[in-house]
Specification:
single chain, mainly alpha, 434 Repressor (Amino-terminal Domain), 7 helices, globular
């Protein structure tokens, strides 16, 4: 298997906006926080929060920042997952993390 194929396989698991939103909504639901409570806490329309919960609409970056600012457990979960993003030891042999690749190129040149 070529290096390019290995790279493609290892990077298919990147999270998109919808995945992050679903994860955060699951955290909020486990805490028993309702859509109305989130909308009230963040001072945003209830319809937008309902879209996150029920219509699988991804939240904007501003909404993510607001949620992280308002709820400590969400902030801890997001910060904890971002520290694990760049661990090249877990990638298949001879592959580079997309986050580290630009840094490695700068070191080589």
């Amino acid at each position: 298997m070529s290096t390019m194929n290995l790279w493609q396989i290892s990077h298919k698991k990147d999270l998109n906006n919808g995945d992050v939103t679903r994860y955060i909504m699951r955290l909020l639901q486990k805490q028993g926080i309702t859509t109305k409570q989130v909308a009230s806490d963040l001072n945003i329309p209830v319809e937008r929060v309902r879209n996150w919960y029920y219509r699988d609409t991804g939240m904007t970056a501003l909404d993510l920042l607001r949620v992280m600012q308002e709820y400590e457990f969400v902030r801890q979960a997001v910060e904890g997952s971002s520290s694990l993003e760049c661990d090249e030891k877990r990638l298949p042999f001879n592959t580079k993390c997309s986050i580290c690749a630009p840094q490695n190129k700068k070191l080589v040149s």
